[in-house]
From TrEMBL:
Family recorded in the similarity comment: Belongs to the peptidase A1 family.
GO molecular function, one term: aspartic-type endopeptidase activity
UniProt cross-references to PROSITE patterns, sorted A to Z: PEPTIDASE_A1
Protein's name in the database: Peptidase A1 domain-containing protein
InterPro entries assigned: Aspartic_peptidase_A1, PEPTIDASE_A1, Peptidase_aspartic_dom_sf, TAXi_C, TAXi_N
Keyword Signal: yes
UniProt keyword annotations, A-Z: Signal
Signal sequence coordinates: 1-25
GO BP term, pick one: proteolysis
Length: 417
């Protein structure tokens, strides 16, 4: 029995983790793109209030995690040789909170695109449009670009999307992506030039969205990084499908970055620690079983890290035991919150343990999330509705993360190097 076409894409590139040696820190010979958090560029006044912004992020996160859990739910059986085949472009995974500034076309129209390690296609809103959502930047107009080329039906690029013939319109190759929260983008495939600072990439295959709707807010589109032919990283020559990124915390003035062309080895994550003590969790809870249960994925579009209930409860219990301060009521998905300005508020560190001995200790902003921006902070983990563990972007902040998709490795380096 062949595996579901939606099951294994994230699992395949996120199975293996390794701490990045200092010698593999940021290589200045590689192109580095700045990343900013979506909330920093939002022009919506209703999200200037921290509590409103916080609750909106949690609602988006709940929907995305529900989609991930559904897509990666266990199957009864599958054939190993079929892992990674029959993958369809566009998954119901929502979208990322971290953005990169990109110029589309010639001359370039600059847009904010969300980076997403859970999607494999690049797209932007395009004129003329049947439906569109509001974005702060001008909507890209192919008619004003001298480098615009439509992708015809029957071309190898169109075939790479595995689309049916009825997706073609007037000889143009069509695409459609539907997301978990009801958002969607539909349009035609194009070849265009993308500009990142001084770097220009010619003939990038991407979606030109003429029918778009949803809660995308400030983004003009999406930059998919999953290992597929249509993804951004696989269309850049000489990268080997490898890239690195660094997500700065929200209150960090300096931006994060995205760069391409790293290669590394790997080891499995095998545990969690609170303070200097390892939490007693059965190691195999983080491994993918033959029935499809378990595994760990890393997702830039998910906010909060989810753990299987037994692992979450053990971690939370150990954290509470070493934390002093005034507890506050539960907020949204968080059941462990504190008044951060109470006189005796102290908390331990949180660490990830890896096979072979390396330990990665998170900064406080990697496991405490401010609920109201003033007084209340919450323990930024939550129980998973399944055996799937999801490392969200809160726990990824302040760390260099390197991905070698060809070899299936993901690495962590401290302090963004």
């Amino acid at each position: 029995m062949a595996v579901s076409s939606k099951l294994l894409l994230l699992v395949m590139i996120t199975l293996i983790f390794v701490p990045v040696p200092s010698s593999q820190c940021q290589n200045h010979n590689h192109t580095k793109l700045e990343l900013v958090h979506r909330d920093r560029v939002s022009s919506s006044t209703k999200f200037h209030n921290h509590s409103h912004r916080f609750l909106a992020r949690m609602q988006r996160d709940i929907k995305r995690v529900a989609a991930l859990t559904h897509i990666l739910s266990p199957v009864k059986s599958y054939e190993v040789e079929n892992l990674g085949t029959y993958l369809v472009s566009g998954f119901s995974l929502g979208f990322s909170d971290y953005l990169v500034r990109v110029g589309v076309g010639s001359p370039p129209t600059y847009q904010y695109l969300a980076i997403d390690t859970g999607s494999d296609i690049i797209w932007v809103q395009c004129q003329p449009y049947n439906r569109c959502y509001k974005q702060p930047d001008p909507i890209f107009n192919p008619a004003t670009s001298t480098s615009y080329t439509v992708v015809p039906c029957g071309s190898p690029i169109c075939d790479a999307l595995l689309l049916d013939d009825h997706r073609c319109h007037a000889g143009k190759c069509g695409y459609e992506v539907n997301y978990a929260d009801g958002s969607y983008t539909k349009g035609t495939l194009m070849l265009e030039t993308l500009t990142f600072r001084q770097m220009r990439i010619l003939n990038m295959a991407m979606g030109c969205g003429h029918n778009n709707q949803g809660s995308f807010m400030v983004i003009a589109g999406l930059l998919g990084l999953v290992s597929r032919r249509m993804s951004f990283v696989n269309q850049i020559p000489k990268t080997g499908g490898a890239f690195s990124y660094y997500l700065a915390s929200y209150d960090n003035i300096s931006p994060g970055w995205l760069t391409f062309g790293h290669s590394l080895g790997g080891a499995f994550p095998v545990g969690l620690g609170v303070g200097s003590v390892r939490v007693p969790i059965y190691e195999d809870i983080f491994r993918l079983t033959g029935s499809g249960y378990g595994d760990v994925i890393i997702d830039t579009g998910s906010v909060v890290t989810r753990l299987p209930t037994v692992a979450y409860e053990a971690l939370r219990y150990a954290f509470i035991a070493k934390t002093s301060g005034v507890r506050t009521p539960s907020v949204s998905i968080f059941d462990t919150c504190y008044h951060q300005y109470s006189d005796n508020f102290q908390f331990p560190s949180i660490s990830f343990y890896f096979s072979g001995g390396p330990i990665l200790t998170l900064a406080s902003y990697g496991f405490l999330i401010p609920e109201d921006g003033v007084e209340t902070v919450c323990f930024a983990f939550a129980p998973s509705a399944s055996g799937l563990s999801i490392i969200g972007n809160i726990q990824q902040t302040g760390i260099q993360i390197s991905i070698d998709e060809a070899r299936g490795y993901i690495g962590f380096g401290p302090n963004g190097c």
